[in-house]
Structures are given as C-alpha cells and as structure tokens.
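Researcher: Here's the sequence for the chain we discussed earlier.
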Amino acid sequence: MTDPTQTWPADLADRYRARGYWRGETFPAMLRDRAAAHPERIALVAGDTRLSYAALNDRARSLGAGLLALGLRPGDRVLIQMGNVPAFFEAVFGAFAAGLVPVYALPAHRRTELLHLAGKAAARAILVQDRIERFDHAAMVLGLRDALPGLDHVIVAGTAPEGALAMDAIAGDAATLPADPDPQSVAFCQISGGSTGLPKLIPRTHDDYIYSLRGSNEICGIDADSVYMASLPVAHNFTMSSPGHFGALYAGARVVLCPAPLPQVAFELIRREGVTITGLVPPLALLWLDAAERMPPALPSLKLLQVGGAKFLPESARRVAPLLGCRLQQVFGMAEGLVNYTRDDDPDEIVTGTQGRPISPDDEVLILDDAGQPVPEGTPGNLLTRGPYTIRGYHDDASANARSFTEDGFYRTGDIVQRLPSGHLVVMGRANDQINRNGEKISAEEVEDLLLGHPQVFDAVVVSIPDARLGERACAFIQPRDAAPTPAELRRYMRGREVAAFKIPDEIRIVDGFATTAVGKISRRQLREILRADVLAEEEKTA
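Model: Thanks. This is the structure I predict for it:
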C-alpha cells in the first residue's frame, strides 16, 4: 500500500508559490501560532463547553504525543468519525501535531463505508465518537477489527467499551512531537462523492488547502471577530473550508458547534452566541426560511448565510434577505478542489441566480462539449478545472484517475454549467450518475451493486429525480427474479447491509424488465436517462 501523495508539475508549483498562493504554512503550525498569539481567546463553543485556543492546542499536542507513544508513526493514516463535538478538533489537530494523516468519515457512514475507507487508507487507528444520534459507533468500529488486520487501535471519544482505548486517557509529552511536516505533504484525506462505486480518497496538502481557507476568508470577510457556526457535519468539505471551521480558526475567530441544524435549535444558538456566518444545504435553508416565515427569528448578529452543496433555486434565494435579515452567498465547489462564491458586491440577480465564480485568478475553468471541444460562451457544457487547490489525482485508484483527469491535469468534475460573461457559473446539473440528495453525494452504481446482492433482485437501476425538498431523490427500479420483494423488504435489506441511511432509495419501483437496443444492449447511462425521463413525464401529468 502506497502512502497518499499529491504532486503538481514543477512549472505550476513554481507559479503558485511565486503568486503567493502557497506560503509554506502547515496545520500544526496554524493552531500553534494562533494559540501563541491569543491564548485566552475562545476557539470552540459546544453547549456549555468553551475551549480557548491555548486549551485546544495543549490538548491536541498532548493527544498527538500520546498517539505516537502507542506506536503510531508520522505518515500513518488514522480514520476519524465524529459528529459536531470538540473531540473532533482535538483528534484532528492531535493527528496533525503527530504528523499523522486524518482520513475523514461522515457520521452517517456505517460498516460498509468504514471498512472500505480504512482498508483503502491502510488506517492503523480509528478515532470514533462513542454514540452519534443514539447509534453505537464504538461497537460498530470494534466489530471491524477482524476484517482489518492492519488496524492496531480503536480509540473512543466518550465511553470506551472493552477492547477500545478512551481518547481522554491518551496523553504524552509534547516535546516528543516531530518537526512540522513538509507543506507539500498530504495533510489529510477527504472522501469523494463520486459517481462510481464506493468513495475515493482525496489527498489534500497543507499548502493547497490552507490557500483555499485564506482565499475563502478574504472573499467571505472572515476575521478574528467573526463567529462561524458549523451547522452541517464538521467532516464535510463545505463545513471545513468554505471558509468553514478551519477558515475561522485560521483567522483566530470563534467556532460554534451546532448539534442539529433545525431552526428551533439553530436560531437560539445564533442569538446566544452572536453567530455572524453559517452554511447550509438548500433543503435546510428552505426549512429555515419556512420557519422564519411563520415567526420572524430576530437574528441581528447573522450577517451571511451561505448555501451550497447543491443548486439553490432563485425563487428560494430571493427569500433569504427579507426573512432572515442577512446576506446570501451561494457556494459551489467540490472536495477535489474548485470553489466558487458569489461576492458581497455582486448585483442581486447574480447572487440569487448563479453559484458564484472561482476563488483564485489561477483557477482554470474549461467548459467543453461531449467531444471535448469548447462550447460557445453562455452555452452549457461539461466543467473541467485545475488550479492551486484542485487535486491532480485520487489515492491508489488508477482507473478513477484515468476517468477523472485529463493528461494535462484538468479534473473532470461531472457538472454541467453555464458561464456568464462575468465569469459566474450557473449549475445546470450532473453529467454522470451521481445523485445529490440533501447535499450528500450518492453513487448510483454503488446503490445498484448493493441492491443486486438481494437474492430476489435480478437487476437494479437507480436514478436521480428532482425533488423540491431534497434537491434530488433516489429512485430505484427493480427487476425481480421470481417473487418480487416489496419496497419495505428491500429497505430492510439495505439497512442490514450497514450502509449510510441516505443511500437507501427514497422510492422503489418493481418493473418487468428494462429497455434494450436492437442488438440487445443498452448502456447503463442511457437506461438511467430513459427511466428518469419516464418518472418526470409521469409526475408532469399528475402535477
């Protein structure tokens, strides 16, 4: 198993350094320097817990030294699965301080995803929260040990069961920590929301990711007086870096951890903590708007609501300012790199009708037709990009890299966009078979593979359907073998496969068979397009 790497061609790397994008900063130095500059300033708020920069840095460094004392070595990968709790930050920055490489799993992930991610990363330890929303994550992770022979430690934040180590008990001498890593080395691995199979690992370097934080902070107006509320899961790329909690900590600002993004919880937290900025996916934004319409929430501190993860329709976007009393910022990006923002000085029609323009002058954007040729300006086409914070390849996945990257390093995003003369992008949809459900990216192929494991399923096709509440919902078409399983049986089966709940299809339809061409073949993509069109036509008739 090779170590994760990320390398740019020398000419581009030289350009990015010369233009000040890459400054040789690292994550362990980031927290250490902020703690030295303002030790008593509050870094994290979670309920009644308030952690200063000094306290967070001290705990992270002690934990990092303790992890090394367990036998872990700089460069080892550690899988981290936690919710919106301070322990996530202690674990992540502790890993950074020790030279370890965090691999992020989402709270919704279950046995199937964790086995894949830990195996792919060759993780030597898993740091997990004991329970998230009543689910016993500690027990789940302990159950993985036999299937992961390279896994040496299960470390639990909270109550540690027999066979696991309590994270609170792990401590060491910070003097044993290694020197700061090479800024071009991999800081952590995110997970893709890819269109095929299980998630891919996205190696991000210190230099590239910190540049995206710094650039995001400048665009979003984040400074030491800002208060950022993490409404979405803290392991989401949006919540980490746009500008997210990492951007807020880079600025020396305060991060407030929201336990649940429901209006009745979030509005009170915004008022109590003086939150100035937060980010939501469109379905949650709609929930907040509907709540505000019934009872104006009075959120005087809130200056900016970011909406990203999926397209936010103009009709909804226009409701933000009147109902919540703050500015809207649309965000469109991906864990692989490119991030677009609307700006404070953009006209209203741009803010409500586009998904922004890139962070960097060196974000190269191509919009091409299916033959790989540039489309006329203003014509929708396939989005490709490269730049100072867009990766050049996934970890240990040659076939995915061949599909997703051009020979000259452009990333094929899978998005269909239209570019306006101003450079702003309007997202038109996806070109591949990815479903964007409530901001969670689902591979149609992965869900099909899971369904095909049911003994009574002969074939399965999963398609995305536009949905007013979720953005898109997943609809599964099932061709049975003999006796057709019911939708309820199939959902129970999916839950039994121990996958993230958001991957279970919202709608299941039993069909006799699928269309074929004259020669008896049809591509999966064509088939998905046909079935999607059938559902949309049916819904149009009943609308």
